[in-house]
Design brief:
The protein contains 5 helices and no strands. The chain is elongated. The model has no long low-confidence stretch (mean pLDDT 90). With 147 residues, the protein is mostly helical. The relative contact order is 0.19.
Length: 147
Amino acid sequence: MSQNRLITALRERNLFLAWVVASTALVGSLYFSEIAGFVPCELCWYQRVLMYPLFLLLGIANFRRDRSVTYYALPFTIVGGALSLFHYAMQKTGWFSSFSPCAEGVPCSGEYINWLGFITIPFLALVAFILIGWLLWIGRKVEDSFR
């Protein structure tokens, strides 16, 4: 498949693919907390607050083929991605050691998982927010041929 055909296919299916990513993030976060028993820190809760509505918004938009959802969902991905990046930097660097939003309970610098030395839960959330944002961005220019 040529690169142009691949991009065209992604643009045509962007809402469904973004919903799949949001669904995976939702199921993954519930797995980590409810099955694996990892207690989410405060920053993890804020990331969930920004990811969970995307599951509903993108699911409804995909069902209705409503591309205007980009304008409502993109702010969630930008804020969520920034928060995930901040959380990841807090875990992996000493840059934000003096700033501690997690005053009680689980420390935000804690790492329940550390796959391959760099994949942590905030990293997974960051990748999900970036993928969803990218998929929404590339699909925004597609003419809605379903109406």
